[in-house]
Design brief:
This protein has 74 residues and is α+β, with helices and mostly antiparallel strands. It contains 2 helices and 4 strands, in the order βαβαββ. The chain has a 4-stranded mixed beta sheet with strand order 1-2-4-3. The chain starts with a strand and ends in a 6-residue tail after the last strand.
Length: 74
């Protein structure tokens, strides 16, 4: 399986709403969020209609990878 990851260029603002929509639609498998963009992403995530199904896994150096949990029982 090829993992489709969204990693952005941090020189310009990313459209987090669009990335979250793509995550839910299965167009990408995960979103990588760096510490310096976390607060901007958090605002979009809290306003996202399916935010309770978006799961973040923290990694070293403050990087968080978010994926969509398509199993509603988990």
């Amino acid at each position: 399986m090829i993992k489709k990851t969204c990693e952005g260029d941090f020189l310009e603002e990313r459209n987090y709403q669009e990335l979250l929509d793509k995550l839910v639609a299965g167009e990408i498998d995960e979103i990588k969020i760096e510490p310096k963009e976390f607060m901007s992403f958090q605002v979009a995530l809290m306003n996202f209609r399916q935010r309770k199904r978006i799961v973040g896994i923290a990694h070293q150096q403050g990087i968080v990878y978010y994926h969509y949990n398509d199993n509603p029982t988990q």
